[in-house]
Amino acid sequence: MKRLHVIYFSPSGSTEKVVKAVASEFPGMPVETINLLTSASRKKSYTFGHDDIVIFGMMTAGKLFTLSDEIFACLHADGTPFVGIITFGNGYYGIALNEMLSRAKAQGFKAAALGAFVSRHSMDTAIAEGRPDSDDMKKIHEFGKNACAKILGGDYELHTLPVTNWSSWDMGNKVIAYREEHPDEAYALPSSCKAKEITDACIKCGTCVRNCPVDAIDIDAKTFDTEKCIGCWGCINRCPKHAIISTSKEVAEIMRSFGEASTKRLEPEIFI
Ligand SMILES: Cc1cc2nc3c(=O)[nH]c(=O)nc-3n(C[C@H](O)[C@H](O)[C@H](O)COP(=O)(O)O)c2cc1C
Ligand code: SF4
Ligand code: SF4
Question: For residue 13, how far is its CA from the centre of ligand 2 (angstroms)?
């Protein structure tokens, strides 16, 4: 009997939804869920063997998101089959799947299936609004079913390799040009894009504090540690009172041009 491990880093919740839908197509196995959002969860070590299957998902920004070093460093496998999932906001996912493949291999996994799925853009939820929608969910479940059949059939090899889809994207802004020129650097949002404010709508429920991946929020002082903040947009999207707002003019401009450039509906991409 195989054991299923469902692992995700999902600041605003879309990746978690996709990963869990894929996992639902692996029936009848004991399931362990590992949410790597908090700093405490990433201080632990997780080891997997031959009788395990790992389904792993992470958000992207043209590459794997900040903290990918830390996230993969706590996962250790010994030939364990791996189903890798990324989500992106209908723009481009660049080298994220290639990066995931090489990081998973380096940690001892055998990648059996990879998928890139469009989700609403966490920095501007009007972009790719409502996604993953019902068409996406059908493809996500089909991906899960095929990955499960492949792994249970003993085939842990990836027969189609992910492509780098950076060149298909021509938004022409500085941030993307920088990422393209520095593919080996971990993704880091420029400090100028991290400016945020907590408004009087805050009821001090603590949701943002509990879910900040890097413990950057002081809710009593209503301040953010911009050195620590990675700009994941989780606090903004999870706040039940919409009390956290981005005050960065640079972000507003980036998202305006991103919105103009991403009007064409992109579809999920599967490598299996
Ligand atoms: C700082 C930041 C940068 C992003 N960059 C991109 C990008 O370059 N291309 C893209 O398509 N989506 C981009 N996104 C959108 C996310 O990849 C997408 O919304 C993802 O589904 C969020 O996952 P989550 O809901 O699990 O946090 C970015 C999001 C953030 C917060
Ligand atoms: S999640 Fe929103 S309401 Fe709750 S403490 Fe944070 S800012 Fe305040
Ligand atoms: S403070 Fe920064 S790192 Fe923390 S949840 Fe908000 S955007 Fe993410």
Answer: 17
Which of 37, 86, 121 is the pocket-test mutation for ligand 1 (most atoms within 8 Å of CB)?
121
Which letter does DSSP use for residue 43 in this model?
G
How far is residue 159 from each of residues 57, 78, 99, 113, 176, measured CA to CA in Å?
A: 20, 20, 17, 9, 30
Domain residue limits, the chain: 3-166, 195-247
- Identify the band that residue 107 occupies on the pLDDT scale cut at 50, 70 and 90: very high
Q: What is the pTM of this model?
A: 0.95
Q: Quickly tell me which residue has 């599967």 as its tokens.
A: 270
The CATH number that domain 3-166 falls under is: 3.40.50.360
232 lines ligand 1 (CB under 6 A): yes
Report the amino acid identity of residue 142: E
Q: For residues 80 and 100, what is the distance between their CA atoms, to the nearest angstrom? A: 15
Write the pLDDT tens digit of every residue in 7-45.
Answer: 999 999 999 999 999 999 999 999 999 999 999 999 999
Pairing verdict, β 31-35 and 3-9: parallel
Q: Do domains 3-166 and 195-247 have the same CATH topology?
A: no
Topology of the domain covering 195-247: Alpha-Beta Plaits (3.30.70)
